[in-house]
Write a structure and sequence with these properties.
Protein-Tyrosine Phosphatase, Chain A; eight-stranded mixed beta sheet; 400 residues; 15 helices
């Protein structure tokens, strides 16, 4: 069996926001004998920071001697990244076995994320994990991961993203994220804008769920500090020692989160910032590094459901040299192409953005990722690759 071909076939399932839905998904878990009840779950939602907090907290639990499962998304170079135990990715055979166990109980058509969520929770039960750190896919209230009854709920942040599905205000998005709050289960939050914080406080009060916010000021670039504090506080609430947390923080690697590669005399930095709040934090952090004073270029790509005009505007204020490329996702923005494969809707969208000055003077589009990366390296000593985890993954495959 060719695992990559098998997973490509699995990816033909419907998009994340369709599928069986949470009610039918809960019934699926009854047929699977509720594997999610076999371990303690830390459930993590948020606009940004989820993957970082999940990964570091899982490593802290492992460092403390607990067999720990980790479920995150999206993957960068291999789908096996999504399901890990004690830092080791699931094997192709175990991945296929877990998915087949789920599909054998399928009555309503599951979307890809539903299949992977169920497969992960089955896999962790089979491997007898003691803890599982579970990242939501989208929102929280209706997310498939909300089938769980956690020991601790974490909301890392609330910002305007996925507005077409979660709502167009911070209050609406906060309500969706706070949908992971369960009766009597402690809730830990990062800094939230006041309107969002009030929504979370109200829902936590209604569910008699103890609520705590980490004490980090809302300053640009503080997201990394906040994520570390969330991990430290969550670990303390779970009875994990500071020594175990410190060991985890020193040894943990976070692929695609300001990940630095040296390529001869050139430096390539990968960061999956993919919405304006994440981009703001990335650029604020960038200004604190030595790279901000070097000859730098940015290479970026974006998804259609993101506010990419704003992100391009933010990037152009920092980088005079910019390249935009295309990634192999049906959701990717196609600015323009010599292949004539771009739809009129894409062309009209690009023309409107260009007329507004969104694509800056001096920036260019190079459709092939490898060619775009080579051109960026030719023009700069440091290349920041950002805008999409899909792009980060495609570039990362070329570097590792």
């Amino acid at each position: 069996m060719n695992f990559n071909a098998w997973f490509s076939d699995l990816q033909t399932r419907t998009a994340q926001h369709s599928g069986a839905g949470l009610a039918a998904f809960t019934q699926l878990f009854l047929r699977l004998k509720n594997p999610q009840q076999n371990y303690k779950i830390i459930h993590v939602a948020g606009t940004n920071g989820k993957g970082t907090v999940c990964t570091l907290l899982a490593h802290a639990l492992t460092s403390a001697g607990h067999k720990t499962g980790l479920f995150i998304s999206p993957h960068l170079t291999s789908p096996a990244e999504r399901m890990q135990i004690d830092g080791a990715e699931i094997s192709p055979d175990d991945f296929v076995s877990a998915v087949e166990t789920v599909l054998a109980q399928e009555k309503e058509t599951l979307n890809l994320f539903e299949v992977l969520t169920a497969a992960a929770l089955v896999y962790f039960a089979e491997k007898k994990a003691a803890y599982v750190v579970l990242e939501t896919g989208l929102g929280g209230r209706k997310d498939p991961t909300n089938v769980c009854a956690p020991a601790l709920s974490i909301i890392t942040s609330v910002g305007l993203d996925h507005t077409q599905l979660l709502g167009d205000t911070l209050e609406k998005i906060a309500a969706e994220k706070a949908g992971i709050i369960k009766f009597g289960v402690p809730v830990l939050c990062g800094y939230l804008p006041p309107d969002a914080a009030r929504v979370v406080q109200k829902i936590a009060h209604e569910k008699n769920a103890p609520l705590e916010f980490v004490d980090v000021k809302n300053l640009p670039g503080n997201a990394r500090v906040q994520n570390m504090q969330l991990v430290r506080r969550a670990a303390k609430m779970l009875g994990i020692s500071d020594d175990a947390v410190n060991r985890a923080l020193k040894t943990s690697k976070l692929p695609g989160r300001f990940e630095i590669f040296k390529c001869g005399s050139k430096t390539i930095i990968l960061d999956g910032a993919h919405n304006p709040p994440a981009m703001e934090n990335l650029l604020a952090f960038w200004q604190t590094t030595p790279f901000a004073k070097q000859r730098a270029a940015v290479l970026c790509a974006f998804m259609q459901d993101k506010d990419y005009p704003q992100m391009i505007s933010m990037l152009s204020a920092r980088f005079k040299t910019g390249l935009v490329t295309a990634v192999s996702s049906p959701r990717a923005v196609k600015f323009f192409s010599s292949s004539r494969s771009v739809s009129m809707r894409d062309i009209e969208k690009f023309s409107a953005r260009a007329a507004e000055g969104i694509l800056p003077t001096g920036w260019e589009f190079v459709s092939d990722v490898s060619a775009a990366l080579a051109r960026a390296q030719a023009q700069a000593d440091v290349v920041l690759v950002t805008g999409s985890f899909y792009l980060v993954g495609e570039v990362r495959k070329r570097l590792i």
